[in-house]
Amino acid sequence: MNKVSYAPVSPFLVTPQRKVARKHEEIFYPECDGKPMADNTLQFHWIMTIEGNLETLFKNRSDVFVAGDLLWYPVERKPDIRQAPDVLVAFGRPKGHRGSYLQWKESNQPLQVVFEILSPGNRAGEMSRKFAFYEQYGVEEYYVYDPDRGKLEGWLRHGQQLRPIDPITGWVSPRLGIRFELVKGELQLYHPTGKPFVGYVELVEQHERDSAVAEAQLVFAEGRAESAERRAEHEHQRAKHERQERTLAEQRAERDRKERALAEQHAEQERQRAEQERQERTLAEQRAEHERQERALAEQRAEQERLRAEQERKERALAEQRTAFLEAELARLRAELMATK
User: Fold this and answer.
1) Is the pTM of this model over 0.70?
2) Quick one: DSSP state of residue 68?
């Protein structure tokens, strides 16, 4: 679409052209086509409204790039093949500032959704060339709104072609999830939540309100985080104290266990010492009994020796008596014999 020659306070600040070197040949990819962003304030209002609301819609999606009045180069080394949609959306591409959308540097991802806002200066031939460009280079959804005539058109890709969306009123974008309405020639767009798109000023005010709320929420969250930190520190200290108490209890239990083991060891040593003493006493008693038995046996042997000696003495005395008797008898018999002679 036509582009403004002044620099508005918006995300669409124009930057100088840059050049990209490919191998040994310099290729220039201008970042400005020399045309104004808008021919009038009404066109500019709608560009800003659609771009701003889409930015808000996808503010939490890091993989959705939304921009306005940005030159799109779909073919590398072909700087003349380009187009600058009034509003564009690229899914699967990161947010961030760009001087232009160089498709080969964007994982070769074409723009999926394009908006054009018409002004009285637009010509049918120009719009036909734009349509052919978007159809050829992969745009999935293409929307054209003419605020002066109150006309809205849309096309959806089917294979290699962009086919008209009919009816457009009540249409919900497959990619964006937004709903299109045309009431008495006035375009009305609705977020997936049903909330209507608002103008740029309202968006700024809403952003300020959201920022204030976000700041309050941040302060509250920081307070909660600090409180949570204190609670966590308290829990940490309590857990540390409990851990220390458990450690002390375990140490006391280990000390008691060692003391019991030592007492049991001492008791066992005392038992063994007492048992040894008992065994020594028993052994001494056994030795004393053995000695007593040996003395008794010796005395018995001595008594037996005495008795044997006495017996032998008696036997000798008896033998001597018999001998004396026999000798006396023999002498008597001799005497008698002699007497008889």
Assistant:
1) no
2) E
